[in-house]
Each structure stands twice: as C-alpha cells, then as structure tokens.
C-alpha cells in the first residue's frame, strides 16, 4: 500500500503536538509518495503478567542478628546479581557475628542517632526462585535462634500496563521508521526535510521513554522485591527503660533547683534595695514624729486614742 508523505507527517504531528507546522509541510509534499511498511503481525497472546512482592519479619531473643543477616545476604550474593541483588541493608548491633557485615549501609550511625530500633535488608530475587529462596531464609533464621513473626505477600496484575507499553513501543517504532525513510529519500526542499527531521527526533525521544517503561515493567515481573525485617528483643531493655526514667527524673529535679536558684539570685539585689529603703523611711518617720494612719494602728492592734502634743 502506498500513501503520501503527508499522511506520515500528519501522524508525527499528532505525536509532537505541532499540527500547524506539519500541516504546512504536508501541503508541499503531496507530490511525493513513499512505500508504507507492512503492518507488523500481532504478537501472540501472553499470559497474565503478575508482579509479586514479599515481606518477612524475624524476632531474635539473643544477639545473633548480624550472624543471620550476614548469612542471608551471602546466600543472595551467591546467586549472582542476575538472580538476586542486595538493594539495601542496615545493621545497628554487631552481635555474635562480629562487626558489620560487608554490604551494610554506611548510614548506620545516622539511623542509630535517629532512634531506629530494627534492622532491615531489601533484596530483588528472581521470581522463579523466590519460593525456595524464602524457605532457605527461614532455615537460616531458625538456625540463628530467630522465629518468624510476620510474613506478607502481595500480587499486582500489570498485564494491561505491559500490553499498553508494548503497543506504544511498536507504534512509535513504526512511525520512526517511516519518518527515517522520508529523510533518507531526500525528496522535497530543505524546509520539508528539516520538518521531517524534527518529527523524527521527537518520535525517537518518545520511543526511548516507551522502551524504558517497557523495561521497568519487565523488571517488576521478573524480579520480586523481598524485604526482611530483623528485631532483637533485648531482655535488659526493660531495666534500661527504668534507668532512663530515673535519670530523667533526676535531670528534672536538678533543672527545677537550678531555676529556683536563678530566681533567687535575680531577686536578691531588689530585696536588699527594698529592705534598705524601708529601714531608711522608718528611721526618718521616727525622727520627725510621723504617726501611722488610723487604719494602720487598727491593723496592728493599737486602738488607743491619740494624745495631744
């Protein structure tokens, strides 16, 4: 089937949202024809595309978190990055394993300062191996004295997204091929070829973005994230809480006494000055024979009538 170059550039116009400029080029290129490639055959119907994710939590009653985490991370690395990848891991207590294992995140000190209590490891595991891999994780945890406290699994159907992404890639690729054919034919004047090259560049950018989306969806289906949480229940934690409370109470009492001393020190000069002024006024009143007012004498219990001079 043969169509005019105008149809090809009109399609590119819809992609790049530049209809006015391409319409002008279309009017100039009506005299040239190109062979439109045959449509690609429809792909075979694929099965459901499911993206799985898993979360597992272990509780330890002895300080073997480092040992167990190190063995589990070594198990993942032993499979190779193509089948298992350590995305992130943290370790706050060295435990029996001795020190921080290789691959532990470098921001452990910041996590401890922020009050983080639990350790975590985030892995990407080949979806075909994840069931057996989780069983081996459980075996390593039990051997280290841990017990399973929680397990979660989620499944997201991304079949429609995969189909849409594949269709978008095919459409952008076909359009890019047609535009490239126009450019290579070198038909038309310089302005027309410039318009075709601009449309091709825009289409190529959108094709790259569609391919990235396609690859991301394929990665989600092929590799399942596995999040491992580690918690160490320290028996001495309760005693530590009581000790912290006592220290907090002592700090509060000390702060209160310090505040009281500050108030006294701040008020002492004014008390001295006020007392001195009161004594001075009292002496002056005695020398001059000033009498207290009647209400003052009643208040002090002196109710005798005043004597004449």
UniProtKB/TrEMBL annotation:
Keywords in alphabetical order: Coiled coil, Membrane, Transmembrane, Transmembrane helix
Domain DUF4349, chain residue ranges per copy: 133-282
InterPro entries: DUF4349
Regions crossing the membrane: 257-281
Any coiled-coil regions, as ranges: 193-220
Protein name: DUF4349 domain-containing protein
Organism: Sphingomonas yabuuchiae
